[in-house]
Specification:
- The complex is a heterodimer of chains A (about 110) and B (about 110).
- Helix content of chain A is about 0%, strand content about 50%.
- Chain A contains no helices and 12 strands.
- The N and C termini of chain A lie far apart (about 40 Å).
- Chain B is mainly β.
- In chain B, strands 2, 4, 5, 6, 9, 10 and 11 form a 7-stranded mixed sheet that branches. In chain B, strands 1-3-8-7 form a 4-stranded antiparallel sheet, with no helix packed on it.
- In chain B, about 35% of the residues are buried.
- The chains are: A mainly beta (about 110), B mainly beta (about 110).
- The interface of A and B includes residues 98 and 100 of A.
């Protein structure tokens, strides 16, 4: 079936370090891919998305590229801040208007 | 407010009791979703409404779970004969026409003793 697998957390980094959170997916056809973020005490919110192969989604300094050949959508940021501490969820949707399928989440903790 | 509102934010109940969780979506959003999130896990899909009708209820775990959206706006998730395993945060989200772009509420935390 369709599924998303993320690297396990927690990930602990120092401020200004480079971040990668791995995400791979299994899906029939060509899904759209998303990263959602959950800051402490807040609801999930969309961070970025990519709808077709080789698309790059970007927002708030975060980037992810839809790689069909490796079925991956890794999240990257060149220089993390303490305010980036949150739980990050990779997700896919495999038909128009259908349900989002989430990975298990990766907790990121950034220390000053 | 302008966001998705869920009530109650916290609900403690006893095994076997009936529970209702309410979701007030963003005005004008036609799609509404319910998810369940256990500690350390990603959101697990339960049901999705397009307007008043359930477009996909394949995630409802069993017939103790039921959801309605009678006027295409507010939705209620109903759980009968609650069990301890139902303890989780129940998330509601709404969406306009942009595929996969969901706006989530802060959730209703259900604890079944």
């Amino acid at each position: 079936g369709n599924s998303v697998t993320q690297m396990e957390g927690p990930v602990t980094l120092s401020e200004e370090a480079f971040l990668t959170i791995n995400c791979t997916y299994t899906a029939t056809g060509y899904p759209s891919l998303f990263w959602y973020v959950q800051y402490p005490g807040e609801g999930l919110q969309l961070l970025l998305k990519a709808t077709k192969a080789d698309d790059k989604g970007s927002n708030k300094g975060f980037e992810a590229t839809y790689r069909k050949e490796t079925t991956s959508f890794h999240l990257e940021k060149g220089s993390v801040q303490v305010s980036d501490s949150a739980v990050y969820f990779c997700a896919l949707i495999y038909n128009q208007g259908g349900k989002l399928i989430f990975g298990q989440g990766t907790e990121l903790s950034v220390k000053p | 407010g302008a966001g998705v509102s869920q009530t109650p934010s916290n609900k403690v109940t006893e095994k076997g009791k009936y529970v209702e969780l309410r979701c007030d979506p963003i005005s004008g959003h036609t799609a509404l979703y319910w998810y369940r999130q256990s500690l350390g896990q990603g959101p697990e899909f339960l049901i999705y409404f397009q307007g008043t009708g359930a477009a996909d209820d394949s995630g409802l775990p069993n017939d103790r779970f039921f959801a309605v959206r009678p006027e295409g706006s507010v939705s209620t998730l109903k759980i009968q004969r609650t069990e301890r395993g139902d303890s989780a945060v129940y998330l509601c989200a709404s969406s306009a026409d942009r595929v996969g772009e969901l706006f989530f509420g802060e959730g209703s935390r259900l604890t079944v003793l």
